[in-house]
């Protein structure tokens, strides 16, 4: 793996990236505010708005290179309006964030292949009939490949990045710094509450066997559902750093956005019913509903993917269960 492709795993290395960003951002904001003394109120506000957009973009750029929990925060920012940028810049900013949400990271196939073969303790071609080395999707801590089983079934193989577990643990130590930086431009965030919940869930996301169990639960719940699909898991091939499931293909978020309003409304209702139905009716909270985790299938149903950030809710907690 080239030096620029390595995932920084030490706390020092990852703190350094965030520290440089925080220091630079503070200096630039100070410079902008100082210059505003000589500007009109309107021009001064416009300058601060531009600086806020630049700061938000820099945060996303750093989070995108860090992977792990840091990239997860970047993904969340890619579809939630948490006040990171002024309203007039929001659409432009969301378009730029789409690249972070969808882009496959630069980790060589040879590195990923080694992870798979270490998990299975046998060569890749002994496990799968065919295996496409080009990833079809990227997650915050792994990427996904398409393969074919000896029985002819097509499957999606999600593989954890080498070294990402150490990187995530370093992120957890630095999480306070990351969240404080975000709060500077999104004062409505509660860093303490957000940090506590991320720490509670992130270790679970590193265990793909647990993720496979979560997916099996939802696949069973929604089997035969008229408009919701959760791909079945291949249990015997799902290990701590590899999870294998039924392959599904469909249109992603960017294509869905181009559909007529009536169809987008229908899709929005399906997504709402899945996530809120899971929580209120089935007491299973899928905590990673970003657009990269759902696909519109050719038959009009929605497929839902990635159940690493997941929480089972006490039956007594929710109220007012919506119908799904």
Tally the structural domains: 2
Q: What's the architecture of the largest domain, going by CATH?
A: Orthogonal Bundle
The total beta strand count reads 10
Contiguous helical run count: 11
Radius of gyration: 21 Å
Task: Write the element-wise H/E pattern from the N-terminal end onward.
Answer: HHHHHHEEEEHHHEEHHEEEE
Q: How much strand?
A: 5-15%
CATH class of the largest domain: Mainly Alpha
- Stretches where pLDDT is under 50 for at least 5 consecutive residues are 25-39
Mean of residue pLDDT values: 77
**For the record, what is the CATH homologous superfamily label of the largest domain?**
Transferase(Phosphotransferase) domain 1
Largest sheet report: 5 strands, antiparallel
Query: What share of residues is helical?
Result: 40-55%
Q: In CATH terms, what is the fold-level topology of the largest domain?
A: Transferase(Phosphotransferase), domain 1
**Based on helices, strands and strand pairing, what is the structural class?**
alpha+beta
Basic shape: globular
- The end-to-end span amounts to 46 Å
Structure, described:
This protein has 324 residues and is an alpha+beta fold. It has two domains: 3-105 and 174-202, no CATH class; 109-160 and 207-312, Orthogonal Bundle (Transferase(Phosphotransferase), domain 1), CATH 1.10.510.10. The strands form three sheets. Strands 1, 2, 3, 4 and 6 form a five-stranded antiparallel β-sheet that branches. A hairpin with a 5-residue loop joins strand 3 and strand 4 (154-160). The termini are far apart. It has helices at residues 11-36, 41-66, 68-77, 90-102, 109-120, 124-127, 164-185, 191-205, 208-221, 253-256, 261-280, and strands at 130-131, 137-138, 142-148, 154-160, 228-229, 242-246, 284-286, 294-296, 302-304, 310-312. The protein contains eleven helices and ten strands. The radius of gyration is 21 Å and the shape is globular.
């Amino acid at each position: 793996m080239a030096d620029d492709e390595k995932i920084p795993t030490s706390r020092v290395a990852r703190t350094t990236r965030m520290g440089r960003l925080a220091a630079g951002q503070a200096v630039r904001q100070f410079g902008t505010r100082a210059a505003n003394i000589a500007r009109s109120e309107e021009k001064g506000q416009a300058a601060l708005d531009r600086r806020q957009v630049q700061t938000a973009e820099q945060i996303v750029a750093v989070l995108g290179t860090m992977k792990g929990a840091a990239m997860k925060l970047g993904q969340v920012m890619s579809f939630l309006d948490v006040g990171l940028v002024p309203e007039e810049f929001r659409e432009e900013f969301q378009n730029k964030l789409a690249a972070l949400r969808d882009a496959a990271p630069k980790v060589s196939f040879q590195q990923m292949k080694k992870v798979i073969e270490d998990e299975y303790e046998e060569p890749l071609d002994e496990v799968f009939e065919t295996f496409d080395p080009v990833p079809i999707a990227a997650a915050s801590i792994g990427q996904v490949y398409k393969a074919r089983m000896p029985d002819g079934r097509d499957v999606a193989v999600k593989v954890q990045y080498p070294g990402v577990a150490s990187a995530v643990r370093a992120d957890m130590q630095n999480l306070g710094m990351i969240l404080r930086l975000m709060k500077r431009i999104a004062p409505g965030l509660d860093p303490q509450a957000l940090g506590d919940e991320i720490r509670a869930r992130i270790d679970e996301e590193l265990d793909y066997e647990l993720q496979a169990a979560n997916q099996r639960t939802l696949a069973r719940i929604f089997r035969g559902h008229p408009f919701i699909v959760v791909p079945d898991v291949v249990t015997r091939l799902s290990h701590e750093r590899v999870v294998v499931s039924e392959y599904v293909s469909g249109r992603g978020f960017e294509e869905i956005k181009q559909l007529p309003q009536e169809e987008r409304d229908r899709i929005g209702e399906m997504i709402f019913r899945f996530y809120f139905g899971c929580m209120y009716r089935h007491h299973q909270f899928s905590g990673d509903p970003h657009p990269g985790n759902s696909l519109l299938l050719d038959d009009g149903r929605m497929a839902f993917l990635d159940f690493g950030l997941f929480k089972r809710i006490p039956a007594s907690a929710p109220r007012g269960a919506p119908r799904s």
